[in-house]
Amino acid sequence: GVSNGTTFPSADVVTAFVLTTALSAADEQAAMDVLASKWSITNSPSTLLAVAGDSISSGYTGALFDCRNFSWFRSVAVSLGSRAVCFNTAMVGGWIGSLVSPYGPLANETAGTAAVQFGPQAPDTLDPLLDATKFTKQILIVYGGHNDFALFLAASAPAGYGATIWTTLQTYCQARQAAGWTVIVVDCIPGTDITGQAETERLSFNSLMAANWATCASAFVQASALPWVGGDYIDGVHPNATGQAMLAVVILPKIQGLM
Fold it and tell me: What is the pTM for the complete model shown?
């Protein structure tokens, strides 16, 4: 037979349900999940989900620099189950700003040393994932910024740098929207490695995002508003299991709201 444009072999069974009440998207998915578990039905995911960011999202554990199963993104992927195909493209050391620092020595690098920048890599690493013929929703979470402020010595972070990083991120997100992504932006949480003028610039970056996120995204997560304490970090910088769970709890509903 033929259903929704797809031809099924005679050995396959196509079942249609006629209901007197329209189901919400969440109810429809719940019903599909039950059917899939009982009769080994394969549900084709309708959502593509990816994250671009740094070691907070890639899953830095202290012992491992890159442990995807430790990241908040893993928890989100598990929660979404068969509803989404998920790609974690975050990278340790990833930052938003220019590939070579224009501001002189960094806290753990020499002047002019190239750093890992996730922005320019998007056309090669992210945009090829897009496929509107397979997915009705293609969602990208952009969660970066920490290294842009943490890498600077507190004394060398220039005034206005927060605005520069926000503008760079805004341009990046707008380019991803143009490519076909639905974007969610996440602001920058505090860390013991961001102090002095660098902390002032982080706060400026967050304020600009909170006020202007709608210019480059469909949703905004204010992760910095969570009640962060020392016990939520591995090293004062990277969230531990508790901190990663906190991030998952606030990011997941924003994703579900766009699915």
Answer: 0.78
